[in-house]
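Handout, page 2. Input:
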Amino acid sequence: MADIKEKLLKESLEAAKKKAEADAKKTKDEADAEKAKNEDTAKEVKEENKKAEQAVEETEKVEGTVEDTEKPEGAEGNKEVQDGELPPDDGPTSTVTKGEVDKKDAKIAELNDRLIRNLAEFDNFRKRTDKEKSQMFEIGAKSIIEKILPAIDSFELGLAALSEEDRASGVGQGMEKIYKQLMTSLEGAGVKQIEALGKEFDPNLHNAVMHEENEEFGENTVSQELQKGYMYNDSVIRHSMVKVAN
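Output:
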């Protein structure tokens, strides 16, 4: 019977572990997809910046050519204007207009804003996913522990009912070893017993079902523990059932 209970405990813990690993893998895949999307957006922004820089350079060349044509320097330039001759036309150096450059700048600003928003949304998504994953794992672990506690109570009742002779026998020693192994495994998973006997009554940890007049204990002190309470990390799984001295 004890082997079956221990086997059930291991299977339950393994199931919770596999579920947590599956959730973590799913979260990683979603994060990788979001990262790839952000990289594509950054690449698009980089290409648009490069195109805009080329457009600006070509526009500056065009403006420089126009200025040279409108403001001839020296006697030769004045002579050409007086004779009615025009400088040679080498053809248009660029087909990009100032309006197109403005549109590209607006597009770059839009893409930059979109990239910043995507990065912020991804960071919020990552934090929210980590929090949800932690909460789901804690809920699953608490659910399994709650189902194991009645078996632990039965184990303790069985050990308490053994006589000294039975405890010294092989069966009694085997029960004690299995019980210690079970409690060690639970402690390693973050489960610990709530201290009650002789402690001041705390409604956050204890559940008072009886009161008595007892001079050995101070007022509002736990005089007897009727059922042990347990905590998982900082969360109460089951309150201690106690008797309180008035």
